[in-house]
Amino acid sequence: MRALPPQAPPRFEIRVLPNAAEAARAAAEELAAAGADAITDRGVFRVALSGGTTPTRLFDTLATARYRRRVDWERTRVFFVDERCVPPSHERSNYRLAKKHLLDPLQVPPRNVFRMKGEDEPRRAAAAYEKVLRQEFGARAPRFDLVLLGLGADGHTASLFPGTAALAEKTGWVAPNPAPSAGEWRLTLTLPVLNAGRRVVFLVAGSDKASVVATLLGKKPGYRKLPASRVRPTRGSLVWILDESSAAQL
Ligand code: 6PG
Question: How many domains does one find in the chain?
Answer without folding.
Answer: 1
